């Protein structure tokens, strides 16, 4: 019976996963045919046929369930006829407002129909300080300019649109005017309590360095943690601790249950009326619920509570049940409750690590000392998380096992309980103790980062390697002396020795990255890599570093910073380590920046852009066409570096933000025809003159522009001029990152077309014909 139960779960979850990989939501009859076929097969008496029928039934039900939930969620998305419209919306602030570089940001829940019967559950609102202050639970009447969900799509990096889907955010709005309504939203009573607790911590720890960490550990708000601290936590692999994580909820529930069990057994009258074990279970669940409510019942927290509830129900039955069965039941409950959970790396990390810990514990033989159990648990957790971290992020913090071995007991057993008790203690002493203990933890983290070997950097493995690696981990966690245990190491080898794709001589690739309103182009030859511009500041962590890791690039031969505009050089400090993070090794910076620009305060070899500069890498020629010597540039755009790349067959031109005057100068100097051109100045109406286009005669023209940007780039007249010349138009705001492989012929890849998803489909259909 248990085997069939596990087979059903092991098939239901893949059914949900298959739906989440679809480019568009398929017709319902797919699932109906699967269910009908399975029901017919179940009538067969043959055991194998029945097993196949159970698997087919579970897959079909999982697919259908996820399909239905996806249809409901996608129906929430903003209708295309409301995109770009400014509408009045009445509702309340349904989360803790977050500070950003551009002003407050918060989730807004409408209370009445907006237009055409549209009533989304959640809208993300970008505000400015002049309209605020905005407090959690307040009711407002906002005039919002609405946009659909949209995020950058690159070969690697954070999938923002997937995150919006998981959070059930249906649109993005920017405030044009606002009217506060005096009444508070009754549905936001818990949110107001959380806001009051956050203010209590801020007042108790006004100047404390780790005030933001204490807030994160108590009410789940991570917005107050400085960036340099987050980077240190990521580099040491302890980010999972700096939140109301499943580990903290489980440990606090266990502590509460242990205390109640200890006390209950020593009060005979209580023990006779109600079993102490069941009282302890109730106490643990209540503790988990209260702590999760403090966190605002975020999606990861909901998953943990569900897991604990399932485990508690299984234990309440007081009947023997395999631990694997409890784990599988929790997995099924979470996926049924939230079929979008399978899109989260955190979901897979938590379930697979817990699963392997159960496996490792079941394989222990004989009496084991407590310190051996602790070491074994750390080893199992580290090895189990290794493949997922390498596949998802292309790196693994080598100091993570040591950092976690110290940080987990201190943060989970001391800092978090003290911080929670400090919410009730009026003097603030306990909060101060919790903050100081965490300061000692951070000293240890900084010591770990001083080690020479910090990260395991490899070429990002393929997802197809993951099942083999997981089987290898299962073998490694077998007891010592098992004959097949050594095969586990063999199965893990593909993770570390994934070959880096190599280009032939005389061939290059160029990826015009999707960096919103800005420009960044990654160029690779057989043995060299060059990055032309970086996009805005936010693209450093979100786009550039993940793309470099995924491409197996651990150092750049050249970083070209075309001119002094933030949409072109904003993320350069991230690459150079000037924002407190770890720098990417760069051999040379080529630029047209002012002499005392802060970016140039680095010991890296530097050279100003000049006409006539050229170099040759692996049979590919690179030539700088601008600035002309002593040219009286009018502005930074006119000073931009212009790079031409060509092999024996084709060429690429990156003209930054130059205008018509500079284009004319280039044509007069003998600008040759070019197959691929990155449209100057993102397709501005003051660039891409008829003369320039006729001289180039490009086959492909790429517009690197932000989604519904307020500059209205690219201008329709510019697009029309290029189209009239017979070029193929490509836009990063519609197609994501655009990659070219240039050899004897040109191959083009559009990132949104490589791995399309049904939530992308809804977005791209609203991209054209909308007034910003």
Automatic annotation (TrEMBL):
It is found in: Cell membrane. It holds the Pfam family DUF4131. It comes from the Bacteria. SUPFAM superfamilies: Metallo-hydrolase/oxidoreductase (SSF56281). Keywords: Cell membrane, Membrane, Transmembrane, Transmembrane helix. Residues 517-707 form the Metallo-beta-lactamase domain. It is a multi-pass membrane protein. Gene3D superfamilies: Ribonuclease Z/Hydroxyacylglutathione hydrolase-like. The chain crosses the membrane at residues 48-68, 241-264, 276-294, 306-334, 340-361, 373-396, 402-424, 460-478. Its main location: membrane. NCBIfam families: ComEC_N-term (TIGR00360), ComEC_Rec2 (TIGR00361). This is DNA internalization-related competence protein ComEC/Rec2.
